[in-house]
Amino acid sequence: MNLVVFSGPPSSGKTSIILKTIEALKQRNISVGVVKFDCLYTDDDILYEKAGIPVKKGLSGALCPDHFFASNIEEVVQWGLKQGLDLLITESAGLCNRCSPYIKEIKGVCVIDNLSGINTPKKIGPMLKSADIVVITKGDIVSQAEREVFASKVSSVNPRAMTMHINGLTGQGAYELSTLLIDKEKDIDSVQGMELRFPMPAAMCSYCLGETRIGEAYQMGNVRKMDLGDDYE
Amino acid sequence: MTMNNLKIRELLDKYPFITTYLEDNKLDITGYEELTFDEYLEHFTDEDIENWAIDKERLKVDLEEFINQMKEFLGVKDEVGIESLTILPGHDKSKNPEGFEVLTIRKSEIVSIVGPTGSGKSRLLADIEWTAQRDTPTGRAILINGEVPDMKWRFSSNNKLVAQLSQNMNFVMDLTVREFLELHAQSRLVQDVEETIEKIIAAANNLAGEKFNLDTPVTSLSGGQSRALMIADTAILSSSPIVLIDEIENAGIDRKKALELLVSKDKIVLMATHDPTLALIADKRIVIKNGGISKIIETSPEEKAILTELEKMDAIILGMRSDLRAGKQLKSINS
Fold first, then answer.
1. CB A139 within 8 A of CB A12
2. I need a labelling partner for B146 at 20 to 30 A (CA). Which of A30, A67, A174, A209 fits?
3. Spatial separation of the C-alpha atoms in residues A159 and B74, rounded to whole Å
4. What's the number of domains chain B is made of?
5. Rg (CA), chain A
6. Residue B187: which pLDDT band, with cuts at 50, 70 and 90?
7. Can you tell me whether residue B315 is helix, strand or coil?
C-alpha cells in the first residue's frame, strides 16, 4: 500500500482536490481510502462516504492535531492495510501553520489557495516548505497575474516542490495529480520507526497543562514574552 | 556549485534575484554580507531555529535549487518561442474516436471552442496544459512545434504553458494598479519595470470603455476595466504562450481589440464562447461533445459575412452605451 499525507490550511480545498483525484484513480482501478484528521469537528467523512470511499475520522479534541496525527498514524496505516487499499490518503488541516505531519519517506502534498493572500506562502512553515507537491487551488477566480505571482512566492519558499494548479470544482488538473501519487516502489506495510520531516514545537507551559488564569504568577515552563519596546517593560 | 565558497555579497552580485529568496524565507542578511551562506546560517541559535522553524539543510539545498531554476527561467526567454500547438485525436467518454485528424494552431491564431457545460472543455485545456502524451483519460497527444514537448512544461512552476482568463476572475489583492503591476513584473524578473507598466496601462486603457489610472486600487476597477487590465497584463507580462479565454462579456471592454492585442503578442488564443461575434472572429472552431472533439468547423465566407453584420450591431450597442454614460439622449438606429 502507498501512503500520501495531504495537509493545508482550513478551507483551502483539500477535500475537493482529494475527491477529484480519487475519481481519477478509481478509473484506473486503484482502491483508495481516506483518514481525515481534524481538531473539533469535521463532516468531510460524509462527503467521502457518499463517494463510496472507505473513510475514518480522527478528532484530536484537546490535543494538538499534528501531535495526535503522529501518535495515531501507525494504527491508521494498519487499518488501511486491512481494508486492502492500494493507496491510503490522510488529510489534516494545518491549524497553526507552523507544523506539518509529513514523514520522511512518505509523499507529502500541501494544498493552498490563491485567495489566502500573497504573503501566505511566507507565513506557512514546514507544512508548505517541506512538501513534495504543492497544489494551488481557486485559480479560477483570481487573475492570471495573481496566479503567477502567488506561484512564484510558493516556489521561492519551496523551490524543490512540484507546483500544480488544480480546480477543485471542475477537477481540471486532478487527473494529473493522480498520476503522481502511486509509486509501486514506495509500498509500505508500516511506518514504525520512520521520522517526521520536521520536529513539532517543544513548547510546554502552564497553559498546555490546563491553566486558565492570566498573570505572571501562573506562567511556568516555556514562556516567551513579546518585545513591546522600553515603555512597557 | 561554487556557491559554498562565495560570500553573501558576492552571491548577490552574481545572482541579484536571490533577494526574493532571502525575503520570502525571512532571512535578514544585513550585517552578514561578508559571510558565506553556510556561515550565515550558523549564526542562528537553537532557540531561533525552534521558534522560527528554520531548517538549515533545507535552506541550503533550496537556495541552490532556486538559483538553478531562476537561471533556467532567465535562459528560457532567449530560447526559440512556441510556433505551433498540435492536438492529435483521442476518444470521447464512450471511447468513440474524435472527429478530426490533426489540429495545428499557430501563434497569433484564434480558435474558438463551443459545446455545452460539462462537455469536456476543462479536460481539453488540462490536456494542453499537461502536454498529454496519450496518458490522460482522452488519449490525446499534444505536440509543440510539431514535436513531443519537453517535460519541463509539466513540472516547472514558473513556466506554465497556458494562461487563463475567465469571466469569474477578480482581483483580490489590496494594491493599486501600479503596485500590482510592479509585483507581477518583479516576479517575471522584468528588466525595465517602469516601461512595462506604462505599456500595460496604455494597452488596458485602449481596451476599457472607461479609462483608469495607476493609482486606482485594483479592487475598485469596474468589470470591464478589470477585464481590460487582465488581458493587457496577460498579453504583455505573462510568459505563457497559450491563452485560454472563457467568455468575455460584452460590457465595458472592446473585445475585438482585446483579441488583436493578444494576437499581436504572438499568443495562441483558444476561446470558449457561445457569443457569435467572438466565435466567428476565429478561423476555426472546435465542437466538443461527450468529452471529445466531435468536429472542427472552418469559419465559412458566409459566416464571415454574418460577422460583419454582427459587428455593425455590436458597434451600435457600444455607441449607445457610451452615449448613455456621457448623459446623452439616444437616437433611433435608422436615423
1. no
2. A174
3. 15
4. 3
5. 19
6. confident
7. helix
The rounded distance, in Å, linking the Cα atoms of B195 and B323 is 33
Question: B112: closest CA among B287, B306, B303?
Answer: B287
Amino acid letter for position A61: G
User: Grid coordinates representing A50?
Assistant: 457518499
DSSP B159-218: --SEEEEETT-B--S--BHHHHHHHHHHHTT-S-HHHHHHHHHHHHHHHBSS---TTSBG
Q: Is A9 on the interface with B (CB under 8 A)?
A: no
- Chain A residue numbers with beta carbons less than 8 Å from the beta carbon of B187 are 148-149, 152-153
Same domain membership, residue B182 and residue B134: yes
* CATH number, domain with residue B151: 3.40.50.300
Strand partners, B84: B106
A141 Cβ under 8 Å from any chain B Cβ = yes
Looking at domain A2-186, its CATH superfamily turns out to be P-loop containing nucleotide triphosphate hydrolases (3.40.50.300)
User: Mean pLDDT in runs of 10 for chain A (233 residues)?
Assistant: 94 94 93 92 90 93 84 96 97 75 93 90 89 93 90 90 90 90 92 89 76 88 81 55
Identify whether residues B72 and B119 lie together within a single domain.
Answer: no
pTM above 0.95, yes or no: no
- How far does the CA of residue A219 sit from the closest CA of chain B (Å)? 18
Q: Do B282 and B143 lie in a common domain?
A: yes
B108 and B54, same structural domain?
no
Q: Closest Cα partner for B253 from B308, B322, B307, B309?
A: B322
From the list A108, A110, A93, A170, the residue with the least C-alpha distance to A138 is A170
Given A121, A146, A224, which is nearest B173 (Cβ)?
A: A146
As to burial, measured by CB atoms within 10 angstroms (0-12 exposed, 13-18 middle, 19+ buried), residue B32 is: middle
The residue whose grid cell reads 472543455 is: B121
A24 reaches B (C-beta below 8 A): yes
Task: Specify the amino acid at residue B204.
Answer: A
Residue of B nearest to A162 (CA): B155
First to last CA, chain B: 75
Rounded Cα gap, residues A97 and A94, in angstroms: 5
Assess whether pLDDT exceeds 50 at residue B78: no
The DSSP code for A116 is G
Task: Please name the amino acid found at residue A188.
Answer: I
Q: Say how far apart CA B128 and CA B84 lie, in whole Å.
A: 12
Nine cell digits for residue B207: 481596451
pLDDT band at B335 (very low <50, low <70, confident <90, very high): low
Q: Which residues on B lie below 8 Å from A172 (Cβ)?
A: 122-123, 125-126
Domain that holds residue B16: 2-76
Domain end (from B19, B42, B76): B76
Amino acid, res. B142: I
Do A105 and A52 form a contact (C-beta atoms < 8 A)? no
Residue B302 CB coordination number (10 Å)? 8
Clarify whether residues B177 and B231 are in a common domain.
yes
Residues B258 and B314 in one domain: no
pLDDT > 80? residue B107: yes
Rounded to whole angstroms, how far apart are CA atoms B59 and B326?
58
Grid coordinates representing A121 are 506562502
